[in-house]
Amino acid sequence: MTNIVVLVKQVPDTYSERKLSESDHTLDRESADAVLDEINERAVEEALKIKEAGEGEVTVLAVGPDRATDAIRKALSMGADKAIHVSDPALHGSDLLATAKVIAAAVRKVGNVDLVIAGNEASDGRGGAVPAIVAELLGLPQLTHARQLTVEGTSVKVDRETADEGLTHLEASLPALVSVTEKINEPRYPSFKGIMAAKKKPVETLTVADLGVDAGEVGLGNAWSAVVEAAPKPPRSAGERVEDDGDGGTKAAEYLVGQKII
Question: What are phi and psi of 251, to 5 degrees?
Fold first, then answer.
């Protein structure tokens, strides 16, 4: 049986107006609608496909405030079996390294994990470093930017997409960590039956103390990076209207040259 942990995160909906808190320049979570990050839906989908191809169990793992429960329930309604939610006020403002330490401790608590699946980067911070740090802390091989994933016996194979859209074929022994791109699959929509079943699936809520993590290693005050200043995005300026008197193409080209676009 393949024991899979999927890392999920609740993020501000990209259709909402997102902003930072004026007091400490951390994300103002109350200012925007919150959703399960789309890349995490694809990570959950890939775990479910592996489970459905054989025997397995899928645990979703989230670090975040109480409202992250909504994202967890979404993943459970897709078909994941159970969840761990690490929620602790001490985590407010944690940087990538502290977050990865907490996630790694939570994965260890699950125990006997064969495969950890994550998105390649979250749509809010876009740091893209957490999967690699988690793999390093757990001593696992990491297979990143996967657009195809296959588990065969005790090994995992991925097609890794490179920046020039080339492919690299990677293989590692389990246990391992794989981060996936948006091209890995199309996630399923939760069914009504799945939504109802998710309400009864177990969600274990843990604090950093439960994981044996020192609260002095997490949080904004212990972060290695901080936002020291923030300003609202300037309003979009009016566009330039081009009248076509037979020379519209030339005017448009001249405008683009002036903007150094062409």
Answer: -65, -40
